[in-house]
Amino acid sequence: MKKNYFITSTLIFIGCLFLIYRPTQAVEQFTFDNTNWSNKSTVNHWPALNDSNYAPFIQTIDTSNTSTSSNIDDSIIIAPPNNYWQPERYSQLNNFNVAKRGATWNGSTGAALHIIDNSLPASVTISHFAHVKGQWIDLIYTVQTKGDNAQHNWNKGYSQSNSGIRQDSGATFLNLGTSTDSRNWFNLWTNSCRPQGLNNTEQASRWDITLQLVNSSTKQPTNISGLYQFTNVNTQKVIAFPTQPLVNQKDQIINLDTKTKLKGHFDANGQFFDVCAQNDYTNSSDIQDHTASFMYLFKNGHLQFSVIRSANIVHPSTMFVRAYPSLSVKQSLSNPDIAATTNKNGQLFDENNQLISQISPDKAAFHIFQNFPNQPNSIIPHTYQIKLSLPTNVTLDSNQSVQLSSLNYRLLTATMKNSARLNKLTSDNHDGTHTYQYSLTNTVLNNLNLLLQFNLQINWDDPSIQKQLITIDKDQYFPIKIKTQVQIDSGTKTQQNWDLPEITSRVQVPNETIRFHYQNKHQKEIQKSVYCHGKLGTPVNYQVPTNFVDKYNQEYQYLNAVDDQGQPVNFNQLYYHYNHGKETNIYLTYQEKGLHHSALAGKKIVFLGSSVTRGLAAGGISFVDFLKSEDGVNTIKNAIDGTTLAGRGANTYVNRMKKQISPQTKLDAFVCQLSTNDVAQNKTLGTISNSKDIADFDINTTTGAIEYVIKYVQDTWHCPVIFYTGLYRDNPKYNQLVARLFELQKKWNFSIIDLYNNSDINNALKQNYNIYMADAIHPRKVFYQDYWTPIFRQELLKLFN
């Protein structure tokens, strides 16, 4: 399926950045011409921008088409994500701890992250920060303090009082903001930064900041490009960019206004390019000074810069980074993208096989993404329409079938939700499809990453579906292909139209349940109901018994069957159909025939075995008990859990047969279980003896014990011997034991009731395993009654006819 969700998630990191820079290393030459930072009169002595050495530099921006003029691949806006104020929103804290509250010179900060050791880098990850080109993106924010500031040493630790307020002057906070005020999101605050010469500091200090956008699942760098915007607030600042990435990647500094107050120059060694605001000493509070704003165009999901403290002495101890929306630049709407999903029996997965949500098993989902970046009010889109051409065996029948949400921090308004309309345009396009249109009209979609999820209702009873099914990993799926057209009308602008590629969502064919009720002509239950499970659209292979005998030895004869609506059931045309997760009921009506008289009545038969013969998972009731109650068999049930054929212990089959069943008893037949315990307890299989002398059989082996039982029964009670096999398939050694039993049959000519290879038994297990079996060995009561007892009855009757 298509791996191209193109949500252009755009980031604006707009900051009031106050920091100091005066490095002494040769590789980082002095950025400023004057070291007397405490003298206002020297602050504005900045060199002019060297256009010949620094290209490209764009003085103006074509606001009608930013992406063309500045070669922007994708618009990336750094903005507060959902729940940005909650510390648990952030992961992989390195050299950060969560503080009860942050600190700032102005406003409420809420919770914060604080740097533990200022001499080391500190980093934090914002998981699922953006969704771009079909992948979730994490933002890794790393900050490193550089320089020394005398009285406030960067290595100083952090402590916190009971009230949550910092106690030492070396604390550094990364404020997260509050739920009602996003201005302090990623607001870096410290009172430790000092310029050279201020308060007798010997060196200037600065922040080195790195932003990395990586794939959320692989953690590999992305190839995303975009704009990072800096806006002057409160005071003058200087931001330095390494020149090497600018040269290699053709990154650009873009002015937002032709009347800009920005100035810039290279440092003496050509290592950094600095951009600074002109003088702005006054506290302008939260007012954005766009004449001192610029954008930095970065590529490959990676951005490095240094924040350098300006010469302002009004607030010499603070540095901020704040997030603001900007309406200065019109950004073109991106081409929308549609993504398909996979519905695995009610669990909805995306194209990366990641579980998204729970959904009804008869629904297919499609996701359509569209980015509406920051724009002036005059060009905000007013109409957003999506046309969907769907197969006629699926429907989109109500607004509840469409889920509208936002992927960024902006919430959808009630007006926006109420403006949505869903209309059916055609009933039939005469090509196996019909068309719907979903519209958002007169809606403010500014600064919004829009996600539309269309949930399609499948008509599983449409016979055409069965012809379209595909098989994936042994499971059947119904592939649903749709064609999509998106149209955006911006009011004053020309309409934008996109014909998106055909895409396919897949829905797993669900399992369905049919419950068969046994009742008499008065609709009274005469036997416990039977459950059958199968794939939707497949035939129901349930053999309705023509006659059966209940626990009171009453015999019944089949009359007819009806469904939930009272309609007659044709078992030759009975298929599993979708019933919204509910079982389908079929009522079987029987007529009483009187007391059952079986040819097995009064026959005395021994049943020797272990837990399967006893009925461990059926409350101690097995086929032996049903033969006794329904056919009147005079049963001798000798069964102890966990016992084996092989061995000389007191509870082995051989010893119990010899000591607990009287040789003088007149028996009509002797039935013995082929023990699964011999395999489970790793008993030796042994070899078939060349002798028929009972003294020659090694009863410490399973083969020898079987031969001993056969010979002893023949010599003692002179009656037929029947061995029956179990259903233990988890251990291949039991299959070998079954094969050995048939080899012994050739020598001794005894009967075998082979449940292990019985087709009716195995078909029943394929459809209703959990109903019929408690585990790999032990049947439930309903399995004994519905399948085992009729098979034993049939085989035992052959001995007496």
TrEMBL record:
Domain of life of the source: Bacteria
Keyword Zinc: no
UniProt xrefs under InterPro entries: SGNH_hydro_sf (IPR036514)
Keywords, alphabetical: Signal
Signal peptide segment: 1-26
Listed name of the protein: SGNH hydrolase-type esterase domain-containing protein
Organism of provenance: Bombilactobacillus bombi
